[in-house]
Design goal:
By secondary structure, the chain is an all-alpha fold. It has helices at about 1-15, 20-30, 65-85, 90-100, 105-110, 115-135, 145-155. It has 7 helices and no strands. The longest helix is centred in the middle third of the chain and has 22 residues, at about 65-85.
């Protein structure tokens, strides 16, 4: 039941926010292993592990609500891709993932770099993404590929 709702919400929001649904899926797998009621030791909640302090900004009221959490995750990640894509297009995916993990201000304060554990986090998500799309190369995409959208819609 939840799997279908999660997949539909990812595809719907990926289209709306022009993000590859496979990168959102990889992000959610790494953040929560698709456990909608996951809570981190820092208090981040739900599939995309969103902090309650960010709920209002992301138009959320319930971090465990699948639809709200995926919308919030996708909207936030899309903003990060847009921000970093304008400044560092060749590194926008890495910088966006690092910002998702550490916060955009932390990445900026560290001269567009991140902690070692965040490097592992980025590599984990990229590896998951590659597994989903079946390739050994990765290009940072800010728009979903036709293949990704067709895959998501047909599932």
């Amino acid at each position: 039941k939840d799997a279908g709702q999660i997949a539909s919400a990812i595809v719907e929001n990926a289209k709306e926010y022009l993000v590859d649904p496979f990168i959102i899926t990889a992000l959610i797998e790494r953040e929560s292993s698709f456990k909608k009621n996951a809570v981190s030791h820092h208090g981040a909640m739900g599939l995309g592990q969103i902090m309650p302090a960010n709920f209002k900004h992301l138009d959320m009221t319930d971090g465990f609500n699948i639809t709200q959490n995926i919308r919030g995750t996708t909207a936030y990640f899309s903003k990060l891709l847009e921000k970093w894509g304008a400044k560092h297009p060749e590194r926008s995916l890495e910088l966006s993932l690092a910002s998702y993990a550490e916060g955009p201000n932390a990445v900026r304060r560290q001269n567009n770099s991140w902690k070692d554990r965040t490097g592992k986090y980025i590599n984990d998500i990229v590896g998951i993404y590659k597994r989903f799309i079946g390739t050994s190369t990765l290009e940072a995409k800010t728009e979903p590929s036709d293949e990704a959208m067709n895959y998501g819609i047909s599932r």
